[in-house]
Amino acid sequence: MKEVKLDITKVGFPSHFLSDKEKDSSAYGLGIGESIQYEWFQKDGSSCRFQNQRAEFHKRRLYAIGKQPVEKYKNEIAVNGDLSYLNLDWTPLKIIPKFVDIVVNGMAERVFTPRAYAQDAMSQAKRSKYQDLIQGQMLAKPILNTIMENTGANPFTVSPEDLPNSDEELSLYMQLNYKPAIEIAEEVAINTVIEENHYIETRKKSDYDVAVIGIGIQKHEFLIGAGVKISYVDPAMVVYSYTEDLYFRDCFYWGEVKTMAVTELVKIDPDLTNDELTEISKFGQLWNAEYGQYTSSQTDAFLSDTCTILYFNYKTTKKVTYKKKKIEGGGTKFIEKDDDFNPPEEMMEDAGFEKVQKTIDVWYDGVLVLGTKYLLKWEMSKNMVRPKSASQHALPNYVAIAPRMYKGYIDSLVCGMIPPADLIQLTHLKLQQVTARVVPDGVFLDVDGINEVDMGTGNAYTPDDALNLYFQTGSVVGRSYTQDGEFNNARVPITQLNASSGSSKAQMLIYNYNHYLDQIRNITGLNEAVDGSSPNPHSLVGLQKMAALSSNTATRHILNAGLHLFQGICEAVTYRISDLLEYSDMKEQFVNQVGEYNASILEEVKELYLSDFGIFIDISPDEEQRSSLERNIDIALTQKNIDIEDAIDIREIKNIKLANQLIKLKRKSKMDREEKMEMQKQAMAGQQSAQAEQMRAASLMQLAEIETNSKIKVKQAEVAFDIERTKAEAEQKLLLMRQEFQMNMQLKGMDIESLNKRDSIKETEKSNRISQQSTEQSKLINQRKNNLPPMSFESNEDTLDGFDLSEFNPR
């Protein structure tokens, strides 16, 4: 077997303007892999870009768990490199881990919820139609109320109380209440994929990376037999094109370095022979010796059977060529062709077709054994993430963010804590030194002052007895004069010795320790109210909360980084679900998985690939936002601007902006209701006043009516009495009249009879006169005729009126 040697030569990236066939070739892929390898693994001195980044991230991670190397501290304390006179505990203090845990665990409390917004034309048409329906009912509300009151039928599709009253309320109503089934189906599908991949663990790891090393990376891909896969990626093992974008949106290649067993390479390229595997194994040993990062678990036997692989994705362009031909009936047919399809103009004019091209972004997947020219895989990526709204663009499999990056340098929260953490560790070691050299307090014993002191017991009073008496009772027995009668200057024979030389040093070191700890707090923005180390007992609860909220603001960029990663993953999952439902054999399996959560939307899930969605993330509010919202709710409740039911609805909204808008609308709605109720009360009061006035008037009228009725009844009684009296009088008069009439009739009868008798007499007399005249006439006639002598005639009418009682006298 020939000897192998690592060869990392300078190679430039191949041209993007080659044909698609040339880009599909292994030579093109090998050129890409070697270019990435040179950019990251070409050593400039003793290290390369990849090793420098990995070592820097490794150092930050060691500090983050309190396992940083102690050699630098030993070099600071050692004298000429000699540590033989020191007996110290070199274990690093876990200062940084506490702050990292506070930040990362605080981020875990913020719940992310994906919210899908259907933005395709079909969904927008449905949304506009529903909005027009609600708006129409808003305008026709008075008429519809009249119809409902008169007919009893309900013409409303929405409760009249829930109908918005203005365009602003309509906009908020559409955001809060309108949720088409297709959006619900999309959200359920996203949550299903997220839960199936245990994304909570991935998110915790990424949040930890952003806080510790300053960058977080996640990966999404489609695996045959497993569906959509979301995984955590170690940033220390990732390579990417140079960028100054915090979101890595302009990267045109990504790579991931992995160490694996040589035998696993056959799964990637089944055509590898045993000789090639043996050669790759030797390359792997050389690579591990040159670039490897060894751990205690990696033995020589392990390293001899492994190799280092570079999985990389490369973005380039692809020309999609179509033959556009008109067909009978006026339609157009497109036939996909290779990029070398270039017929002459005359042929296209004669055949009635034309060549149509467009350029799109594509990603290629490659696998390179580092240090060799073995390219195990090079092909165009399958199931590329391509937004429907911009089909010419394709998204990478990686979602990354480095919120504190400048000119390629990635800063982090832990990076700023390392210098004061080193000073804290040195202070801790110095404090151990001072503590080790501190001696206990002692006493000075004047032997002459206690010599031959008579205790009255007959026993000698020794220095031991004096010390025991002093330490047990605090009392001392001594002599003012010596045995020779001279004055004893040491009248107090035992004196306390205070060995306080180390106290001031310890106090100074403790002060330095707290000073450096405050520096960490100032650098990170995590104050005492958050870490709970030494909160001020005299601070009010509100001030403590404000300090805690300030710390949340200082670490907001880490939360925003996690939010960006989650949104990027959700958007990628959205596109991959569409592809999965349209192209994959796992469609029915995925639909059944989603159906376990919500069987009512299975049909909508099957149609997801027809819709285009915008993904928004609703984040649970933090303490500051919740406190602000609660204050607004409390103020509104105190001023009775909203009801308790409104407060419950508002608290259930995770979007603080929408919640505050809902407070305003609820407040306005209640004010309108109260104004209407006040107007109704006033109208009711006026109506009641009118009714009372009417009742009073009715009462007065009733009293007047009663009085009138009583007067009428009295009058009626009087009239009845008069009538009765009149009737009695009438009856009496009638009787009198009857009697008078009878008498008059009798008199009249007598008069008539008298007249009749007189007339009869007159007629008789007249008849007699006529008869007499006739007789006399006859006599006269007879006289003339007979010339008889004159005759004498006497008259019975010797009165002027022709009637005299003498007529009744007998003749």
Please outline the helices and strands:
Elements: H1 20-24, H2 26-41, H3 49-64, H4 71-77, H5 96-108, E1 112-118, H6 121-139, H7 141-151, H8 167-177, H9 181-196, H10 199-212, E2 216-223, E3 227-233, E4 238-240, E5 253-261, H11 265-268, H12 274-291, H13 300-304, E6 306-326, E7 332-337, H14 345-351, E8 353-369, E9 375-380, E10 398-401, E11 405-406, E12 409-410, H15 413-437, E13 442-445, H16 447-450, H17 463-473, E14 494-497, H18 501-524, H19 528-531, H20 541-554, H21 556-583, H22 587-597, H23 602-606, E15 613-619, H24 623-638, H25 644-651, H26 656-786
Antiparallel strand pairs: 1-15, 2-3, 2-10, 4-5, 5-6, 6-7, 6-8, 8-9, 11-12, 13-14
What does this structure look like?
The model is unreliable at 534-551 and 796-803 (pLDDT under 50). Among the domains are: 1-42 and 252-395, no CATH class; 442-497, no CATH class. The chain contains 26 helices and 15 strands. The chain is of the alpha+beta class. It is elongated.
